[in-house]
UniProtKB/TrEMBL annotation:
This is Phytochrome-like protein cph2. Residues 23-272 form the EAL domain. The chain holds residues 347 to 620 of 645 of the full protein.
Amino acid sequence: AKQDGRSCARFFEPEMDRQLRERRQLEQKLRDAVQFQRFTLHFQPLIKSDSRQVCAFEALLRWQDPELGLILPDRFIPLAEETGLIRPIGDWVLIEACRQAQLWPSDIRVAVNVSPVQFRTGRVPESVARAIYSSGLEPSRLEIEITESVLLSDDSNTLDQLNEIKELGVRVVLDDFGTGYSSLSYLRRFAFDKLKMDKSFVQEIHESGVLAIVRTVAKLGECLGIETTAEGIETEEQARCVREEGFTQIQGYLYGKPLPAEELDTAFQLGQYH
Ligand code: C2E
Ligand code: CA
Ligand code: CA
Ligand code: CA
């Protein structure tokens, strides 16, 4: 048996070695990126259903590596979470997003994604407060987007932090709504200011039963008296559908892909308000 185990280990070793080496390389590059400030934010518009005006931009993190090029968050956020680097990165995102938003017309908000790990291993309210004070941004213009997994563990620590963020006057949004294990129970535990329906529902809207769910999410937001965003809208037909169902905000490639801050002015005529 011992012999078997060893030959098995030998068979997998090169592949595991490679994966481990790649991970260590990426981790080192991520540390460099934090040290040398190689992150940028792209911004994607959220459109009000009734007025069809831009009401907010969501900040989406990008990593520019000299060798690897532009790296999307799905590739490095998990690593940043495992290594704790998500805390300095997340603090930078908050400060930079608020600094940019301060340059926009005052009726446009900014939405920032915050990882559950930032809540579990640090203190988010302090980071939010610092970003607000350093930028001078009106707190009600900042939205913190969290996913349902933030409330998975039953600890009061995260809930306390969410309440503290709300006390600052900052809005708290439940992102990717409908994908968690007990979506409805989370709504009882915290008074979110907005529900963002996960984009998989829009993408599968033609499948049996999905339209009923979409309709129910819009209705749920209406009954709770809070806003609802449908994200991942790529076609006119999808836009018409979620608008008809009652979503108060729409977001997706149809209205704009995430863009660097310098390009927002030209793309969305923000200057006309100044
Ligand atoms: P998310 O918060 O659900 O963000 C929406 C993602 O969908 C973004 O991907 C966005 O570019 C993409 N998207 C927008 N419109 C459309 C559309 O019409 N169709 C399709 N197919 N996709 C669309 P992105 O920028 O790659 O970000 C992926 C995820 O990474 C985000 O999902 C969020 O969970 C995370 N993330 C991004 N920035 C940050 C950050 O600053 N901090 C943390 N903790 N997480 C972040
Ligand atoms: Ca989000
Ligand atoms: Ca989402
Ligand atoms: Ca997501």
